[in-house]
Design a protein that fits this description.
By secondary structure, this protein is of the alpha/beta class. It folds into three domains: 117 residues, Rossmann fold, CATH 3.40.50.2300; 71 residues, no CATH class; 162 residues, Orthogonal Bundle (Hypothetical protein af1432). Helices cover 55% and strands 7% of the residues. Helix 14 crosses helix 17 and helix 17 packs antiparallel against helix 18. The longest helix is centred in the middle third of the chain and has 21 residues. It starts with a strand and ends in a 5-residue tail after the last helix.
């Protein structure tokens, strides 16, 4: 089945430039090009599209209104803004409606990478895709959210302080990486390290995003009874630190150590999504998983048709996070299915999930080692040593 792309721009010349850039793209794509907001709105009302790319300044109908209509009519559609030098203020106002942005002049390689990421692990039920398409932010731990607000409102604040604080919270970290890895702010490289993300964006922009635009959700509410946001927070932060420690013990590169930490922090973001939006059903999942000591993702798939690995990877792909983060989220339970040939952040997160992430809630105790990756990479004999190191304080 062909994938469908709708491109909406303000003038014929701009559309022709994008059409020329996309002329050699995979023939499995069916592309529609229209000039002006009303024409774009009509296409959304009469046809289904997998991706919408639109200018923010359009004739007769503002680009923000078009993205709002797309979210209402086709929430699973990937919504991408074309970002020109003059679009800064308008782009900030439209952030809640957008998944990603692309720079002008149109970069076909950036577009293909974006769509490839968003299409990974895409086999979800339509209602889950619609839900994920609507999500703009995830609940943060209230204490950390308030600390960040207090820090940003202070007279003296530096990027290092901001990065360290955001790096303790799953939701804020995911949102910050979404922003820095799209073309919202004109960067041309993948960023997995939050210190780098904060440095690239700058404290002033982060102040505007947090204090004015409200890009983070500080409510801290899941409405579940059998698992709390703080349970997930303690687990995720412990796994992140353990994953980074394992990468360091194995002498992996600085980049992989950074991926190991951030992947560990975000690996269970799918739990956050399911528990937030289906609290009663997720309570049943937790009860079944803990009562029968069954693997959590298996019970989730029975209840929702997808487990938290698939849900998390889909959302992170939709938000345009680096592919390493998608791989960790999608394969941290079964890294052998990723067909890895060397130890990386997927493996370190899988190991840390079991070696040091099981004490925060009974639901995390059902994790089992993936024998395929242990034997395939020759890791089995190292488990005892890793366990001893991770049992020590201070790693």
């Amino acid at each position: 089945m062909k994938k469908r792309l709708l491109v909406v721009d303000s003038d014929e010349q701009s559309l022709r430039q994008i059409q020329d850039a996309l002329r050699f793209v995979d023939p499995d794509w069916e592309m529609t090009y229209v000039e002006g907001g009303p024409q774009g709105a009509e296409q959304l009302r009469t046809g289904h599209y997998d991706v919408l790319i639109s200018a923010l300044e359009l004739k007769e109908l503002d680009g923000g209104k078009l993205f709002e209509l797309a979210r209402e009519l086709q929430p699973a559609t990937l919504r991408v803004a074309l970002n020109g030098p003059q679009d800064g203020d308008r782009l900030m106002q439209c952030l809640p409606l957008l998944h990603q942005a692309l720079p002008r002049p149109f970069d076909v390689e950036a577009f293909l990478g974006m769509v490839d990421n968003a299409a990974r692990l895409n086999d979800l039920r339509p209602e889950l895709k619609d839900l994920l398409g609507h999500i703009n932010s995830l609940p943060s731990v209230p204490k950390l959210y308030q600390e960040l607000n207090d820090l940003l409102e202070g007279e003296f604040v530096n990027a290092r302080q901001v990065g360290q604080l955001i790096g303790q919270d799953v939701a804020m970290a995911a949102k910050m990486l979404q922003l820095v890895n799209s073309a919202f702010f004109g960067l041309s490289r993948e960023v997995e390290d939050l210190q780098q993300a904060v440095s690239f964006l700058g404290v002033d922009i982060i102040k505007a995003l947090v204090l004015v635009q409200g890009v983070f959700d500080g409510t801290g509410e899941l409405h579940t009874h059998r698992i709390k946001l703080t349970d997930l927070w303690h687990h995720s932060l412990t796994v992140a630190r353990g994953s980074r420690a394992l990468a360091a013990m194995e002498g992996l590169s600085r980049q992989v150590r950074s991926e190991a930490f951030m992947g560990g922090l975000l690996h269970d973001v799918g739990i956050l999504v399911l528990a937030k939006h289906f609290p009663d059903r997720y309570d049943r999942v937790v009860e079944a998983a803990t009562g029968g000591r069954l693997e959590l993702a298996r019970i989730e798939r029975e209840e929702f048709g997808a487990g938290h690995p698939e849900v998390g990877a889909y959302l992170l792909g939709l938000w345009g996070l680096p592919s390493a983060m998608l791989m960790v989220a999608g394969y941290h339970h079964n890294p052998s299915e990723a067909r890895l040939t060397a130890m990386n952040a997927v493996v370190t997160t899988h190991l840390a999930d079991i070696l040091c992430g099981v004490n925060h809630h009974p639901v995390f105790e059902s994790m089992m080692f993936d024998n395929g990756v242990l034997d395939g990479l020759g890791l089995r004999e190292r488990i005892t040593g890793w366990r001893q190191v991770l049992a020590m304080p201070g790693w």
